[in-house]
Predict the 3D structure of the following.
Amino acid sequence: MISSDKRRHRRDYITSVIEYSLNPRIPDEVFDAVVADISESGLCLLTTSSLSKGQEIVIKNDTLAFDKKAIVRWSEKYNDFYYKAGVEFFH
């Protein structure tokens, strides 16, 4: 059986609330998101506002013990209230 999943790293399905910022020069301007899954190379986020492909964000989270820069690889409308976005960490 051939998998259509082209990811380099295994995903862990979790539900965790995080914050992200759109501008690292304004660290107090943060937005909430829910992590749907996480891997070594990125996250799948549920947000209440749309993110744009290619947009850079900073993921902030004390529980997961990291602040990481990431780039939005894809974003789509999820339902009436949320957007779903895949972000890749900068290495």
Notes: The longest strand covers residues 66-77.
